[in-house]
């Protein structure tokens, strides 16, 4: 058994798509739109088969996303090396994204950083 995909709602679907393509080498499909409900989505595919569905629909609640909450915590992307973690973290910081932590080695041995995406979601970058 495996997780087939993870899904997230975004207010700005195209900006979210571009973010995951630009920084995480995702490949977006052509998208889906249901004209009856206004629901729209893209599947972003990553190396080794993992996928992220990004979605949007009319009249979504835009609630606060504190880092210490129950439920969704973060998505982690493995970039392959300590140097790649440092490089991507630096690139995101230079492009104006908040770095919430790291790069650092955690108590359980992961080398990682954590950034905040275009709509306040936490994304972990690890070896």
TrEMBL record:
Pfam families referenced in this protein's UniProt entry, alphabetically: Glyoxalase
Superkingdom of source: Bacteria
The VOC domain, residue ranges: 2-127
Official protein name in the record: Glyoxalase
The species this protein was found in: Solobacterium moorei
